[in-house]
Amino acid sequence: MSLNWKEINLVLTELNLSGSQIQRVVQSAYDVLALHLYKEGKATTLLIALTPGACRLHATYRAVPKPDKPLRFAEFLKSRIVNGWITEAVQLGTDRVVRISIQRGDLRYRMYLRLWSNAANVIVTDDTGTILDVMRRSPRRGEITGGRYVPEETAASRPQREFEIRTFEGPGTFNEQIDAYYAEHGGALSLEALREQVRKLYEGRLGRLAASLERLQEKEAAYKKGNTLKEYGDILMANLYQIHQGDAWFEGINFYTDETVRIKLDPHKSPQANAEAYYEQYHKAKHGLKDVVEEIERGEAEQKRLEAELVKLLAEENPLRLHKALQKQRQVIKPEDKKRPGLTFLRKGWTLIVGRDATENDDLLRHYVKGSDLWLHARDYPGSYVFIKARPGKTVPLDILLDAGNLALFYSKGRNNGEGDLFYTAVKYLRRAKNGPKGLVLPTQERNLHVIIEESRLKELEQCRSDI
């Protein structure tokens, strides 16, 4: 549970923050903030957690991890309060709102910590109550830059509720006791809860990966029967004189095994065309087997990586580090990407998406790309659509365009030529062919790109695949 107002008062009394210098600000996650303070030769890390069910502030004696990328509110605090001095830190009545007054040079700021489980926030104002920035922006409450926040005006009118200071096990001050307690039992930020979230997240990923591997192994088994298709083609070619167009079956001797074999025919095709159809299926199976084996190898490597990662995370003893790692893992695959069809490549900050067939091409066009995204397709060859997701204010570099071009040609019927022409244009310049097959589009304002397939580039791209 969150700290009550009496416990907050005790925390502030023990810490005696007035006179402390703010030396550093770390926001390890969207709901966790730490102020590194220094006073009279002693360093203190003040932890502020807005986590529902575990809202609190207290000194922490555990390392607070840095975020992988700077967060907006932390950057604002660094520009305003770092190297400032705390002149006051008090709770407003019994309202669980802490006001920290800060002075840096001639500038004065108020940082309000509202530790309500259902509406926690950190709000920074000037000394007139004008909001400069907030940790959680809420237009409905008026908690945005330029708004007004003066909780002192309503704190006295709130009814006082009676609470008792809880007794926690362990040695040390109250701050030390609650720091240890919340690490183990602090609701969503406790080790127990975080480890359970980690298990669910990784078990879900491993389960989906296992199902994907099972499907790939079924494909592998089917493709391994490709030699039978070649045998059927050979048998039909050796017995063309016995087959007549219109026949639905051919029954004869399999000279590979000396057994009787019954081969299905297409009555609308000539005997030779039926044999060639089996040869074509054989070649597809042969190439498909190689691709499937490679995908299985990648899947099994990813499976081992996830299992090792799970073991490492479950062994982590610092809940703040585990919380950060969990948030990072959740951001690896965005919700909208989980069900996205096709193949996704993350390359130098750019996202490239490949639709492998007409259905995936159509689905991507309808639901997953926008007008400013770039579309590429092999000219004069059926094959994949490749999309480069646009980035605000950025022009697609030539190197990324060549990456996408290699993918477009590699996943087309022109792959075996080693080179070919592509056209590309923005998605907004595509229009669907009226009454055309699924996924067929007619481009306008397209440009031409000649691409030579580079094996080294494709290998590098394979390392950038974010899906199995």
UniProtKB/TrEMBL annotation:
GO terms for cellular component: RQC complex. The keyword Lyase does not apply. Residues 289-316 form a coiled coil. Residues 349-435 form the NFACT RNA-binding domain. Transmembrane segments: none annotated. Keywords: Coiled coil, Protein biosynthesis, RNA-binding, rRNA-binding, tRNA-binding. InterPro entries: NFACT_RNA-bd, RQC_Subunit_NEMF, RqcH_bacterial. One of its GO terms (molecular function) is ribosomal large subunit binding. The keyword rRNA-binding applies. GO terms for biological process: rescue of stalled ribosome. Associates with stalled 50S ribosomal subunits. Binds to RqcP. Belongs to the NEMF family. Key component of the ribosome quality control system (RQC), a ribosome-associated complex that mediates the extraction of incompletely synthesized nascent chains from stalled ribosomes and their subsequent degradation. RqcH recruits Ala-charged tRNA, and with RqcP directs the elongation of stalled nascent chains on 50S ribosomal subunits, leading to non-templated C-terminal alanine extensions (Ala tail). The Ala tail promotes nascent chain degradation. May add between 1 and at least 8 Ala residues. Binds to stalled 50S ribosomal subunits. This is Rqc2 homolog RqcH. It comes from Gracilinema caldarium (strain ATCC 51460 / DSM 7334 / H1) (Treponema caldarium). The lineage of its organism: Bacteria, Pseudomonadati, Spirochaetota, Spirochaetia, Spirochaetales.
